[in-house]
Structures are given as structure tokens and as C-alpha cells.
Automatic annotation (TrEMBL):
Example GO molecular function: peroxidase activity
Record's protein name: Thioredoxin peroxidase
Source organism (scientific name): Microbulbifer agarilyticus
InterPro entries in alphabetical order: Redoxin, Thioredoxin-like_sf, Thioredoxin_domain
Oxidoreductase found in the keyword field: yes
Amino acid sequence: MATSTKLRAGDAFPSLEAVKLDGSSVTLGKPQGGATWQAVFVYRGKHCPLCTKYLNELETFKQAFQDADVDILAVSADSKEQLEQHLEKVQVSFPIAYGLTEEQMKTLGLYISIPRSEQETDHNFAEPGLFVVNEEGNLHVVDISNNPFVRPELGALTRGLAWIRDPDNHYPIRGTLKY
């Protein structure tokens, strides 16, 4: 039986890179634009209509993430060509990266699926994952799913991150008990 290693809350987020549409490299978990935290949203790819809907909905919460000082990055295993085609349906202003490798998916502890047919996609792909990385480079919030139907509700997520980020709340990383 194959085993999978999942990242644990409080762990240092691994240094992984993907590529943005302009060809530049982006480091997952490294905030951009002056933010001190980053939310990395791993999505299945252009073949997934639920991902398209979720990414477009994420755009409507961009300001709430900014207000909480959390940068947004989305990434998938799609190719550059697949991302270009997907952007015909995804209308977002946050960066989307492509080229997540199967080894990187395993490093993140993501569930990986095999395409059902060539019509779905031409490569194995990650199921959804969310990694919120704090200013120390540690995993503060993690959510990993094995299917596209289970993802964090963005309103609750942004309200929760705003509460966590409020220094008056002294809210630690949760779920760190090792067993």
C-alpha cells in the first residue's frame, strides 16, 4: 500500500516554484506585492468547471484577502497552452501559475488523480489544496481535498484569516499536536 505524506500545520512550507504566463518563475508560499502572508490555491486545471467557478469567485474576494494582508496565488499542473485556454473563462487579476509537477504535488501532500480520458486532460493532476503561509514561511492554514466538491467557503476563509491576523486575538497555529 502506497503512503502519502501530508504537510502539517506549523511546518516550514517547502520551497517550490512554478511558472507564470509571462514566463517568470514564482515561488509558492512567498508573498508578493508587499503582503506578509500568501494563500496558495492548488486547482485541478482547465478541464474542471468547478475550478473555473472557484477561481472566478476567488477574484471577488481578492480585496478581503488584501485587507487581511494575504497575497493570492493559484497553481495547477496544466501546461502554458492549457492555462492560456483556461484564461478565456477565468477572469482574475491575481497570478495563476502552471507546470506543477507530480513530484511537487507529492511534496505538498496533495491527492493526485489520473485523467478519466484524453478529453479530460493529458496529465495526472492535483486535487484541490489550500496552503496559507505566514510571514515566517510556516504553514498556518492547510486544507487538502480528494475531489473538487470540497473546498473552503471563501467568505468564511477571509473572515477567519482577518480574525487570525488581528494581533489582539493572539491566535496560534492550530492542529500542531504531534502524535
